[in-house]
Amino acid sequence: LLGQILDQWFESEPLKATLATDAVIGAMASPHTPGSGYVLLHHVMGELEGRRGAWGYVAGGMGALSQAIARAATARGAHIFTEKAVCHVLLGRDRRAQGVVLQDGTEVRSKLVLSNASPQITFLELIPQEQLPKDFVQRIRQVDTRSPVTKINVAVDRLPSFLAAPNARDGQPLPHHQCSIHLNCENTHLLHQAFTEATHGHPSNRPMIELCIPSALDPGLAPQDCHVVSLFTQYTPSVLADGHSWDEQARNAYADRVFDCIEDYAPGFKASVIGRDILTPPDLERIFGLPSGNIFHGGMSLDQLYFARPAPSYSGYRSPVPGLYLCGSGAHPGGGVMGAAGRNAAQVALKDFRHL
């Protein structure tokens, strides 16, 4: 249990709760859930520019990272097609993957196919079920994909000014504006309470909020004196209680609750908002293909990691379909902006390619 680990090392409840957010981020779990300690470890492993456990902003926004990878690929001769939905994986008579078929009917032939879509989309939608072992299909169907995350993107016409650290007179960003700001994290009990509400199908009354202001470090993201604020919030269930749907009213009611909480810490925040984009778990699934809105393509619990990700005997990136590889967050070692699954899958695919 993460709670026990934090209790061994720290006394301050706000510090313990703030650290605990990285143990439950993206997970339908509380700091008291067995295995939550690993999720914290997952978020602090690795390094950035020689600093172990450090995180950073991407200049130009997260999309700039995708563009950098795309430029590196095209420089090596790759051809990239966007807005071309894949209908299914093309299989030969020997049941090997031979390419993909697009929704417009176009066939793209290939000796190997790598999918960074979720295991659910890859194996339950793009491959005929009769081509896969029944126990494998059952395992993929049973993967816990519950997600507590609602992402809210906000445009504001001035920096938030927090009661704990008011803004300078010139309105310029202060050091805390350039960090990750954790709200509603005074103690771990608050996080557990928020989790409990979501398990009963109700969005948390006092949600956990991680607030970032990337434009405080990268002014090009917003017009002068304006800023973009990224709110990573939980807990919101994928399926609401009593058959209610995440309609516009439910979305806005939850976002209003989040903004009310921020207002308590930074009076004037609500008046500074000039636009907001609310992405609930069903929105994240519909737009980005995240199963149940899960940012990791599946829970990072110990029963769904290592040799069991995405299924026992298939953690080595190869799939039951020869020539088809899984290289996304649903593969070992899981989610996060680190590229480990993709690099490992590429190494395996290259090794197999040499023998074709």
UniProtKB/TrEMBL annotation:
Subcellular location: Mitochondrion matrix
Keyword check for Cell division: no
Pfam families the UniProt entry points to: Amino_oxidase
Protein name in the entry: Pyridine nucleotide-disulfide oxidoreductase domain-containing protein 2
This protein's UniProt keywords: FAD, Flavoprotein
GO cellular component, one term: mitochondrial matrix
Family: Belongs to the carotenoid/retinoid oxidoreductase family.
Keyword Secreted tagged: no
GO molecular function: oxidoreductase activity
Signal peptide: none
InterPro entries, sorted: Amino_oxidase, FAD/NAD-bd_sf
Described purpose of this protein according to its UniProt entry: Probable oxidoreductase that may play a role as regulator of mitochondrial function.
Domain of life: Eukaryota
Sections of the chain in a coiled coil: none
Subunit field text: Interacts with COX5B; this interaction may contribute to localize PYROXD2 to the inner face of the inner mitochondrial membrane.
Ranges for domain Amine oxidase: 35-162
